[in-house]
Amino acid sequence: MNTISKTFLSISLITVISCSENKKQEISSDVEYSLEIIDSLDLQMLGDPLITSVSESGESFLFYDFASTDIVLTDSDGNIQSQFNKSEDTPDSYEFMVEAPGFVDEDKIAVVGMAGIFLYDKEGNMIKKIDHPETLGGGGFMAFPGKSVETAKLNGQTYLVTRSVRTRDTYPGEQKYYDTYKHLELVDIAQESSIEIVPFEQNSRFLDGMGYYESDFWPAVETKDNKLYVSLAGEPTLYRYSLSPEGASLDTVIQLTIPGFAGIEGTPRAEFAEGTVMLNGSTSSIQNIHILGDKLIVNYYGGISAENNAELSKLYAANKMEEADELYFKLDSQVSRGVLVFDLKSMALLGNLPLPSNANLESFASGGGYLWMQKNRSDEVEEDFLRVYKVKLTEK
User: Sorted alphabetically, which SUPFAM superfamilies does this protein's record hold (predicted)?
Assistant: First the structure.
């Protein structure tokens, strides 16, 4: 994993298109910000824990342990408050997880699985199960720190915003797939119902006639004040929607130019098979979106180029695993990573910042007005704890 110093990167240019006014303008800024580690918490446990969500108050933290498949809840000092497992064959089991656990208000936890959407209390007791709008034939799961079920407050009620897993009786090898696909479900908890929202918008690169892996357009999502912010992984574009219980209406498109963002390439549709989920975590991606006060934070991964990915695929296909892993880690260490900072009201770009050294550079969580970034694990010594940095956005 590479380390990045605290030097400031050059600020990207962006193009903002207001859908209501159909205007374009380029915005740049020389205001400087930095990310400052001010504190940390330690989760004392063996295994392979991943931070998935922080409560809005910043007082409670959720982790998912891949080693045990346990969901772990801690306080702000890292003390374990509860630990439970809902992956087994029980009536309150979500079965295979398709979206990581997230907080609903301060006292409930939501998990999306093959068996439905489940709400648990902090001790792991099931409060409610919401069925998916259709039976699932399969699903994929990509885990990043701080990327989980989102919530939205609409007309005083709490809704869930989850990744859509409807099949729509099609697959990525067909045009129908792209014509009918919706990225998200807006879930009415009280009514136990959902509506699908956010299609591939006009002029999206995913409508170019090629086929795409699900990971190519895996959505990064954030909500606040009846607004929904969405980016589709390999497409360097930020979409803002007006959100209501009736659905989402696009109001702003921001096209991003990100240094080191290699981009993605489509795959011939003939290579896709019905019933197969295809994922690739090494290509360019907008990983996550967070809101800190009056700032919008967009976390990106520049990705490994198509040419180098093809070379990696050949090595893995030839079962040259050691050689392939060595090349992957070399290429991954050279990938550009960082965060774009926007003014939430004007959507003006304020900065393009490197991530702190020694932090997990994939993604991070937010809550209580701070970002929360996992420390890189030691390659030399087995550690019986996971350290999570408390990070502040500071104006210089």
Answer: 3-carboxy-cis,cis-mucoante lactonizing enzyme (SSF75011)
